[in-house]
User: Fold this.
Amino acid sequence: MPCPYSMSLGRIGCIKIFSVMCPMRRFLVALAIALLCALAAVRFGFTGPAAPMPLRFVFVAEDGTPFAGLRAQADIFPPPSARGHLSGWRGVTDEQGQILVLLPDARPWWVIVGIAGAAFFFDASKPPQQPEAVKCWLGAKPSVACTVEGTTEKIALFLLLEGSEWWVRLPPLKDRQLLLFNLPQGTHQVVLAPAQLLSYWSGALALSAPVQVTVREGQTTFLRLSAPPVGSIVGRVMDGQQRPITNALVTLSSDENGQLSRSTDAEGQFRFDGVPTGTYRLLVIANEFEAHERTIQVKAGETATVRVVLKSQQFGVVRGLVSTEDGSVPKEGRILVEQVLSPTMRQPAGVWQWHPDGRFEGRLTPSTYILTVQAGGRQVSRQVRVVSGQVTDLGKLVLPAPALVEGTVKSPIPLTNTRVRIVLLREGNDPLQPQWGSVIAEVLVTPYGTFRAEVPAEPLALVLLPFGSGKPLWRTVHPKPGQRLTVRFELPQMGAIEGQAVRADTGQPVANAQVFLLDDAGIVVGQALTNRLGQYRFEPLMPARYSLRCQAPGLAMGFRHNVRVPEGSRVPVDFVLTVGGSVVGTVKTKQKQPFSLYILVNAETQWMARVMPDGRFRIDHLPPGRHILMLFRLGELVSAKEVVVRSGEISEVVFEIP
Assistant:
């Protein structure tokens, strides 16, 4: 980190001054600058960029022979409750069977590495304690032995670990098998998908529904999957002049199997391989062309050929000039473009910028639009009707003088990273969940509890977002141009929730359990991990009613509802977690099973399960006792049944609907 004090002198000035000094004086000056930089880093929190953490993996066969020259892969993703994103590495092992993986930083990470036929899980959540090298030995006892029957050349396997939100693409099969080593205990999910799918999500095209696999310590779980019959689709996208359209987005979808997208190449061609048999919707979208949709049938072992001709989309042109009342042009700002669907509904259509001279121009499809120019605290809107093939000149859009809002925040605790969000109030706009384009700005509250912002002369909501409290406060104002308003917020005495999670069977504390804090609307506003004594704490908290959810691998989820936190109080909330039970069920219907069915357990909990296309569902880690299972279709309750769950056992239930 460069010294913040030397930066004010300028690089050239520092070099010139430094070069004319004698050696001893240069040494003393260098020492003084180093001390100043160290003091500045401590005083102002300056830190350098996080250094990657190297980690070596060594792949060896059952007899100890290194796997040299093989394609290898590594996927790095955050464990539950940690922040981060999924990243990957692909390469070849060296002559010792090694690959070098760089963790992004010292934060907790999970890693899945592998070669064809084998994948290894490694918990890198404690980087300082990591070994220099991790041995990946195929002679060890695997956690899961997966076998896939059928044609496997054009399929891929994805894995979702319990508690994680990241689907990880596993290494390719070898002789129809894939061994998974060192997986954490719990119930994970595996899904078959086309090999063209690089990343999987809940709506992606799958060859079958996700399958749950339970991993227990010291045991091998045998998983047998069957690849369904598949076909292929090849096609070409052209314009009306028979010219290929490059980078057109082609999406293949069905209610039963999900969706998969590809882009056309330089010749306008695209291809889908490993597609399950059935009827699909093929949607083609390209810039400046009308969307095209058709139905296509995929048959086993066959290749369907498609030729798509897109019609050129008709446009109108809108132009104008942005300026202020004194004729100057704002340096920064944006133009929000919204299509008017009805008197009360708008749809975002884009964001434009103006040139340094204030002029702007853009193309839109024929319709009615509202253009809103925003620059700092200034705003002006104009409605325009766009006609195909015509140019509409809006003339000069003059930004009126803004109003000034000055505010104070009185708080019993130090104000850290507390912000005030300025939201434009429209019909039906919730200040706490603002619509697109309605957030004018966010300003930081100083440590002394003051803030200041220029705002447009329109109905506004000033939303105070106290850091860590989980519950915002807001005030409504309607300033006039040039008016100066004063707003005052007063935060109440903060409270806290703390407690401990223990096992019901042994009384031992549960470490690394996830505890979620939810507000009265059911939105998660906080998350914590229990320490080695099973303890957790949420502090500071605004006085309000909260709910808490505690979950740990292999144990039933615990809930506490309507936890009231008074001003200045510490509320104890403990969890006694039992060994949970499971419910497996079937939904029988005379009609074709839709995707829109789901199961909700009890009205006040977060246990939900999607009903698979074959009518099956499963819910794990339920606490022992009586529960109400409710079956929903398109948001409406279809049926409900009571089920008794016993610890460590599986209960069955059957729904029959017309």
Residues 495-577 form a domain with the Immunoglobulin-like fold (CATH 2.60.40.1120).
